[in-house]
Fold this protein.
Amino acid sequence: MCDFISINKELFEQLDIFINSVSDKEDSLMPILHKAQNLFGYIPNDVQNYISKKSGVSHIKISELINFYSYFNTEVKGKYKINICVSGACAKNDSKMVLKEFENQLGIKSGFTTDDLKFSLECSRCVGVCRRSPIVTVNGRVYEQVTPKDVKNILIECN
C-alpha cells in the first residue's frame, strides 16, 4: 500500500482535499468514489482503504458500492473503453459477431485490457438505442448499426 500511495502522492492529496471539503462523509460517498475514479482511472483496494480511513466509512460498504455500480472499476482500464451491447435487439442483430471482430483485432477477450493499456473491451447491457442496433460505445461515444466491417475504422478513430 505504501508504494502505491507514494507513487500517486499528488493524486491522494487531491483526493484528501475533496474528502475534507464535504461535511457528511457517508452521505457524500458516491461523489468521493467518483472523484477517486476520475483521479486514478480506477479504484483499487489501496484507494478503497484510503477512502475508508479518511471518511470513516467501512471498507465493506465502499467495496459493495463499487461492485454494485458498473461505472466504477477496480482494475486499470485502457485509454479507450470499448463496450459492445450484447442484449436484446443488439444480440438479435449479431452484436456477438461485432464483439468477436473486436477481440480478433485487439488480440484480447471481453473483460480484458491490451498490454499497452490502450484498449479495454467489455460487453454491456442495453444503452437504449435499440432501433439502431447493434451498438458500440467508445468512451461514451455511441456507434450505431455497427457491423464487423466497421470495427477496423472505429479502432483507427481511436489513434
